[in-house]
Sequence to fold (415 residues):
Amino acid sequence: MSQHGHATAPSTATVRVLITDAFDAAAADTLRDAGFDVIRNPMLDADTLAAAMTDLQPQVLVVRSVRVCAEALGASGALALVICAGSDTECIDLDAANRMGVMVSHCPGRNAAAVAELAWGLVIACDRRIPDQVADLRSGRTDPTAYADASGLAGRTLGIVGLGQVGQEIARRGLAFGMHVIAWSKHITEDRCDALGVDFCANLVNLAKLADVVSVSVTGNEETRGLLGDKFFNALRPGTIVVNTSRGHVCDEAALLHAVRDRGVRAGLDIFSGDPEDRTGAERALASEPGVYGTFRMGDRTDQARLSIDSEVVRILRAWHADGTVLNCVNVAEHTAASAVLMVRHENRPGVLARIFDVLGKAAINVEQMDNQISTGGAAAVARVFTATQPSAPVVSAIRTCPHVLGVTVSPLRR
Fold:
């Protein structure tokens, strides 16, 4: 039975692992020493991945940013696990993975410090206009008075949108700068904010009104698409700094552009909603607007973050190979359709569980989840079988009469 974001899958003696993107050579060697057949091909992209999957038939795919579509997932009949070498899984077609029974894992928190460091680089760049000064210095212009109006950070208010692991790292650094930190997050409580030394803000518009600096670090998904729109940006005070290191589509870029132009807001953006070559309208204007400072999706691109993520990939693979546990699994169901639990005490012999499942199958009762716990000494075991419908008395009786079954109880599942 899976718990805490873990799923189970069968273990095999030799596992072929296909790794796209960059991956630490020492980590790859560690996997080979552990018996994995590791193939690294950083030249693969979304267009060539399916053919490689067909040719190589890996059981495990490790990707960092290459998009994995349904065709690629279905190209290897052996594929059981996809590991995203990063904190999100946006590049994976999760619906297709769910249909195919492919488990998807990721490496949460391993890049949090790196993203927070870049966020603070962007904050300081906005406040002190460092990129503009560098440009002037390199062009031979020397007018320091043009940059003498920085607001400074100590004693000012930092508003954090999204208090996950990245947001928490940003908060710690804000406190170190002597700032008053407030935070909004969909899944945070006042007690958790108190423990982190920050104030809970229940409303995004109120956060915009109070903050001198806003840092955005929410997960990129459909729930957060357009999270910060006209109401949020209209509530910002003149001169507020907005930094986004999450996803471009979280911010309404047209509304942000108006805030930059009309209210003197400065923006530090590690990511925009479209690729540079595809940007039009507000996206293109925002990227070139004075007062906007951008980087090239560099949030987690440090050696420290990469090595930490790669070591987590090794840990996930070792655990899965050892006993089928999928650490950090994102697509294991938190709740199933199970409505009853069947407890079967039985002798620990081959074929017992098969006979139990045969009885349930003939009765058209679906097994949603199960585990089998062996008693000390290995003579007997207890199987917990979670079923979609409660087995009838005749079904229970049929299981009870199966060879080597010692006892059966069934009860409704209480959640």
